[in-house]
Hints:
With about 400 residues, the chain is α/β, with parallel strands linked by helices. It has helices spanning about 5-15, 25-40, 55-65, 75-85, 100-110, 125-135, 165-175, 195, 210-235, 250-255, 270; strands at about 20-25, 45-50, 70-75, 90-95, 115-120, 140-145, 150, 155, 185-190, 245, 265, 290-300, 300-305, 325, 330, 340-345, 360, 375-380, 385-390. It has a domain at about 25-270: TIM Barrel (Alpha-Beta Barrel), CATH 3.20.20.10. It is built from eleven helices and 19 strands.
Amino acid sequence: MHTPAYSYYNQLFKNLSLPLAWCDLDLLDKNIADIAQRAAGSGKTIRVASKSVRCTAILHRILDSHPIYQGLMCFSGAEAIWLLSEGFDDLLLGYPIANAEDIRTICKATANGKRIMLMVDSEAHLQRISAIAQEEGVVQPVCIDIDMSTDFPGIHFGVLRSPLTTVAKGKAFIDSFEKYPHVSLSGLMGYEAQIAGLGERNPANGIKNLVIPFLKKKSIPDFTQRRQELVAYIRQKNYPLALVNAGGTGSIESCAKEDWVTEITVGSGFYSPALFDYYSDFHHLPAAGFAVQIVRQPKENYFTCLGGGYIASGSVGIDKQPKPYLPEGVQLTENEGTGEVQTPFSYKGSEPLSIGDSILFRHSKAGELCERFNELHLISNGKITATVPTYRGQGKCFL
Ligand SMILES: Cc1ncc(COP(=O)(O)O)c(C=O)c1O
């Protein structure tokens, strides 16, 4: 499938107020179908990472598209509670929370028959949840987060999240559940960030790209064995394990090979932001981005737009700034990058540009785009078919 040309979008945006964010539904639907295909035949369902979407209309579209898509992975207690009120169910908190009021509201939702699981990795979490669950008269389902990183000499390959870094630590934690009758061990999650979220061809990583494929290959058997042993241990202890969650957009294929995994989380692949251009094994289409407007021309072959400085989170690097998308031939200046108000760029493309035209960018990350815009203009078949609110447009800002 070809991605549309600059004139397609520029024409559509002519009568709209810029800057704006768009989602091309034709490309999104192709990504949804391709992601389902990547996991097809594995027997696993796909849980949608809401943080990488942040728009309820798009979350519904993905979940309604194909039976492989089941449930959401949420990123905060307040978000999960709000999503319940918006009619979503089958929610897994992807990260531990400590806010007692949110835990209480979630326990109440459990009491009312909602399917919502909290994430834990320490007894401090269990104590907190168990005490509140007891007061609410429920048994709260929880999911254990186990660390999936691999330590090579001098390199910590992965992220710093769960302290459950070994099978022994995982087993000791599983044993501790006996002390907390008001929580039930219902899930196990291991997120192998160093596979799922790390491309092999990101120019910002320079020479490191040469070793990333090697480290990935070495790391996979290390953590898959950890995950397998801990799942076996939980089953042996007869806990009602409802799900074993793994992965992200960048690790669908490796997770699909693990028999003991029941579901794979995917988020970023739907919009396929700029950082997801740098993987060797898959390619999704640029389904979302933003358009800013040319407001002046400082010199020949240079233009300046209003807005654009929507930098992504994470370690600071050039790859966290938005990537010029269309027209071809737009290059950011090193001095200014994408600015708070003004974004200059040099232009060597063939499309004639003038004041008032739009320049299209892709955010470096997926869901963060929606924190900058109240609406997403939905495009299909040459038309703006709807304009839907983002989380921010619904007055929601969770993190
Ligand atoms: C726990 C967890 N699972 C899965 C993902 C994968 O999400 P995505 O497909 O957006 O990369 C993430 C992303 O950070 C995560 O934190």
